[in-house]
């Protein structure tokens, strides 16, 4: 034992390197004294160990040369990181890599940890996401409901309800799948109550759909059911009681259109349609578009869109731009001062009230120029357009090029602002085309003719709004007819 020098206390014996070696030896913990101290400290920090079976003779030993237990239950306090490291440092690598013989675990069982601890946490790379049974069931129901059209689903519900009502009235057993005799009696019931052939077929189809979707026997495909429906059709043919339209009736009909229609333009349209249908012997389906072929369009943007929608009210075609007869329905969504950073949130909100459209025309972003750094705005435009393409996968995005301005709100340097506007248009156009969208250019505004702008140099004049609406009308008609067209105007 080294002597204590003068001026040193008992706790500061020896030089610094001596103390470092002592601390290093204490950290490594390979001496027998350290092993004994660890064997005394560990039981105080650990819960009582429950052994399940004796160790095999000659099995590798632990720190205190005791046999390694088969399985133990350790409390959360034993999972402290520094104590685990101290124990691991005292073990030999051969002990860590050694796997016990198979018979050692033959009579053992695995017990769960009493409490969660640091060593029982999942690794960052593991998939920790969990989906509840309720979420899976809800998603499956949503997908199944989307498989049929809304009108088809409504018809099926009505048919099943009518069949259940029939079974209650006739005191038949309410069982699924319905027996063949119940289907036969149900068709007879519909015939006696004056139902049409189409209604009877729709109700039988509803019963068959329910049987198929639930994996039950489908008796609606039986031969007798098909023959009953065939006889239903032959016997239920009705004579058309409507009188033919004469030329005198047509003249009277056209004469009263002015007092029924909203304006003279609409009266002329109906007069032309009636006259053409009468003299060309056309059917209604040959002149009109069915509801299923209609195309819906959202026009979303800032005050440019808002003012254009207001100006469209005074035009002959009003806010429909005269495209209603071509099966195009327009929904105007113009908000004064709308910024591009708020566009995605606005479209998500609109999607809660309406079904996704076929086209979304976007005219937004000019209010961000000068207020947001150009590079940051470009990144936001690229990101949000990709996001919108994923939110509306079956919708074509149309980028309406931002218009030049005579004056800008956030800077007097018109040249720098115009350069930023061009960069935003180029970035948005590239991203839109990459997502399969369309481009709408407004070439008439290049050069910034003063007669197209209002006094503030930002908004459009009456003539400017008319030109903007003409561009929208032509672009929408072109994109709907030409599925491969991506840029308007073509030249």
From TrEMBL:
One of its GO terms (molecular function) is DNA binding. The keyword rRNA-binding does not apply. Keywords: DNA-binding. Residues 1-42 are annotated as: Disordered. The keyword DNA-binding applies. Residues 28-37 have a biased composition (Polar residues). PANTHER family: P CELL-TYPE AGGLUTINATION PROTEIN MAP4-LIKE-RELATED, PHAGE_INTEGRASE DOMAIN-CONTAINING PROTEIN. This is SGNH hydrolase-type esterase domain-containing protein. It comes from Magallana gigas (Pacific oyster).
């Amino acid at each position: 034992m080294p002597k204590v020098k003068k001026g040193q206390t008992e706790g500061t014996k020896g030089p610094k390197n001596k103390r470092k070696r002592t601390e290093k030896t204490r950290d490594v913990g390979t001496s027998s004294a350290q092993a004994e101290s660890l064997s005394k400290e560990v039981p105080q920090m650990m819960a009582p160990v429950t052994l399940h079976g004796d160790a095999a003779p000659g099995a590798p030993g632990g720190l205190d040369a005791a046999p390694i237990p088969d399985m133990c239950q350790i409390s959360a306090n034993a999972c402290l990181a520094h104590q685990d490291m101290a124990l691991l440092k005292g073990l030999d690598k051969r002990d860590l890599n050694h796997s016990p013989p198979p018979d050692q675990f033959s009579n053992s069982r695995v017990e769960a940890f009493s409490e969660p601890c640091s060593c029982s946490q999942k690794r960052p790379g593991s998939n920790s996401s969990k989906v509840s049974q309720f979420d899976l069931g809800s998603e499956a129901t949503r997908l199944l409901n989307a498989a049929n059209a809304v009108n088809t689903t409504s018809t099926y519900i009505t048919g099943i309800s009518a069949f259940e009502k029939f079974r209650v009235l006739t005191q038949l057993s309410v069982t699924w799948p319905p027996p063949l005799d119940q289907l036969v009696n149900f068709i007879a019931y519909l015939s006696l109550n004056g139902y049409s052939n189409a209604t009877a077929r729709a109700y039988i189809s509803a019963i068959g759909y329910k049987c198929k979707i639930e994996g039950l026997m489908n008796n609606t495909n039986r031969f007798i059911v098909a023959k009953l429906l065939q006889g239903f059709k032959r016997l239920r043919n009705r004579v058309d009681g409507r009188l033919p339209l004469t030329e005198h009736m047509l003249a009277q009909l056209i004469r009263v259109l002015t007092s029924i229609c909203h304006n003279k333009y609409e009266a002329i349209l109906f007069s032309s349609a009636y006259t053409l249908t009468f003299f060309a012997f056309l059917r209604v389906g040959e002149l009109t578009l069915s509801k299923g072929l209609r195309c819906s369009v959202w026009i979303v943007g800032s005050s440019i869109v808002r003012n254009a929608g207001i100006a469209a009210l005074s035009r002959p075609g009003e806010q429909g731009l005269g495209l209603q007869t071509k099966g195009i329905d327009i929904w105007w969504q113009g908000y004064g001062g709308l910024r591009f950073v708020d566009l995605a949130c606005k479209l998500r909100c609109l999607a809660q009230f309406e079904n996704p459209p076929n086209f979304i025309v976007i005219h937004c972003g000019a209010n961000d120029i000068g207020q947001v750094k150009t590079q940051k705005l470009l990144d936001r435009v690229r990101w949000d357009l990709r996001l919108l393409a994923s939110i509306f996968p079956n919708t074509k995005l149309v980028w309406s090029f931002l218009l030049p301005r005579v004056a800008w709100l956030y800077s007097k340097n018109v040249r720098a602002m115009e350069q930023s506007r061009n960069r935003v248009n180029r970035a948005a156009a590239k991203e839109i085309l990459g997502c399969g969208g369309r481009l709408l250019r407004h070439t008439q505004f290049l050069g910034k003719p003063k007669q197209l702008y209002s006094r503030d140099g930002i908004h459009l004049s009456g003539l400017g709004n008319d030109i903007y609406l003409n561009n929208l009308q032509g672009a929408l008609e072109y994109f709907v007819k030409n599925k491969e067209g991506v840029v308007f105007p073509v030249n």
